[in-house]
Design goal:
The protein has 160 residues and is mainly alpha-helical. The chain has one helix spanning 2-159. The protein has 1 helix and no strands.
């Protein structure tokens, strides 16, 4: 019985040893599985993050490109407006130059006409003065004629 008991004890120890080794193996395998799953999750998360980042950067570049195209389009239209405005300003300047020349020539004509008017006014006044003087001389002439007639009449009377 002792040998059966010893045999039982050794068998029991061997079974406990096998059981503990198999449980250790299973625990290690389970731990490795969890580590592997955690690594896969971290890897998947990193890959998803990288993909999302790439999408974001692509989207951001596309938006920046669209904005730059829009700004360029607005700048081109602004340049066109400025060119048209500049042409119209140049056209107005040329018109203004022509108008300035016309204004200057008209101003000279006005000045000449003013001088002519002043000359005519002085001539007219001189003419008026001469007419008055002529009228005065006519009156004097008549008076002198009358005086001469009187004198002749008086001389004739004296001679008679």
């Amino acid at each position: 019985m002792k040998s059966a008991q010893r045999h039982f004890q050794t068998l029991r120890l061997v079974l406990i040893d096998i059981q503990s080794k198999s449980r250790g193996y299973l625990v290690r395998k389970n731990l490795q599985q969890r580590i592997l799953e955690r690594s896969v999750l971290v890897l998947q998360s990193s890959v998803r993050m990288w993909i999302a980042r790439q999408r974001f950067l692509t989207f951001q570049r596309a938006i920046i490109l669209l904005q730059s195209h829009q700004r360029r389009r607005e700048a081109c239209s602004e340049v066109k407006k400025l060119r048209v405005e500049q042409r119209s300003i140049e056209h107005q300047r040329q018109l203004n130059k022509g108008l300035e020349n016309k204004i200057i020539s008209l101003q000279h004509k006005i000045d000449e006409q003013k001088k002519d008017n002043e000359r005519l006014l002085t001539k007219e006044q001189e003419s008026e003065n001469l007419k008055k003087e002529f009228e005065q001389l006519k009156i004097n002439h008549k008076e002198l004629k009358q005086n001469l007639k009187k004198q002749l009449n008086l001389e004739e009377e004296l001679q008679q």
